[in-house]
Fold these 4 entries.
Entry 1:
Amino acid sequence: QVQLVESGGGSVQAGGSLRLSCAASTSLFSFKAMGWSRQAPGKQRELVARVTAGNSVNYADSVQGRFTISRDNAKKQVYLQMNSLKPEDTAVYYCHASLGSYEVWGQGTQVTVSS
């Protein structure tokens, strides 16, 4: 079935930028929605960005204006451009896709922002 693989994580200084990529094994048109969530130590998993099949986008208040989700259907990839990074953005970031009846999640990629 569907597999998602994240890449692009790493360590950056506060104020820096990073772009995460999510490669899907199937056409992005298979998905009702795709998104990025994150989980920091001691915190609950948080949805940070989502794009629907109708191309509607939604961002968490904490990342609004700093993060941008986008897709490249030809490459079967979804991206999360992260700008003006803050230490509180440090987390494992997960790509996920909704197939309608269930969701598929990637293994995650670590993002560390130092002050």
Entry 2:
Amino acid sequence: QVQLVESGGGLVQAGGSLRLSCVASTNSFSNYGMAWFRQAPGKDREFVTAISWSGATTTNLASVKGRFTISRDNAKNTVYLQMNSLIPEDTAVYYCAGSSRAFGMTPAQSMAPNRYDYWGQGTQVTVSS
């Protein structure tokens, strides 16, 4: 069983930045496609961004393009989410997700929650206006 542990959430003013981290408890991390989802109060879980197992391909929600950047360090079993120019609408619990079926996954498939086998417990991000 793979465990994913997120950190880095918090309270920030609009226009500020945060960097989320997610550490995976697996020696096969480099084989996993990774993603970040978020869920705001009263709303469904929403795809934010994904990165392929190799790091060569990223897929982003339109509203975060140019503001959020996903990256990974396979030597540290860690995926990151750098969030800049935060707005109140970014307020949500952010979840890290991992897929062991990443080979051949298309960008469209990477946006679907059911493609992911493992989920973290979530970290709260609150953006004040």
Entry 3:
Amino acid sequence: QVQLVESGGGLVQAGGSLTLSCAVSGSIFSANPMGWYRQAPGKQRELVATITRSGSTNYLDSVKGRFTISRDDAKNTVDLRMNNLKSEDTAVYYCKVFGIVRGTVTAFWGQGTQVTVSS
């Protein structure tokens, strides 16, 4: 069915940039937003950014102006461009999309990709 493969994580210095990519195979339920989440050690998983079918976006306040989420429906990808990275951005980042399994709208998560920002 739906499979997500994330890439682009790594180690970067504060102030640097990374682009995370999420390649989706299978048919997504495009009526629901796609998004990126992150989870830092000892913290709850939090929503970083979402993007709707029409291109409307929402961002976590702390990343607004620094991160940009985008989607390319022709390539079935959703990317997260991260600029001016801070140590507080260190986390495992997860891509999330929705598909339909046996008639039920179902969330699918990527395996996670580590982003580490050094001071």
Entry 4:
Amino acid sequence: QVQLVESGGGSVQAGGSLRLSCAASGTTVMSVGWFRQTPGKEREGVARIWRWIGSTVYADSVKGRFTISQDNAQNTVYLQMDSLKPEDTAMYYCAASHAATGLGSKLYMYWGQGTQVTVSS
């Protein structure tokens, strides 16, 4: 089993910052990604990290503003979000896969419950 618990969401003004955390437990996974979902829109892959080598990739919409990182000792993955914009408002989910996947959500087998991020102008 793999369990994921997100935290760190909240409400922030445009230009502000938030750091999301994803605490993982259970069997080892290879890929951990952050996704976001807004009602009426398709789920978007935001960033992902390959746990064993730390390789990262980002969606164009967040490149240069968001940073995904990991703390192996705590088995936690973070998403540092800077220069937030109102269009970043969404429910953010942490997901994990045993495979070396990218930003496609269908290949992620485990999902957290999500944490809401709201950015006001």
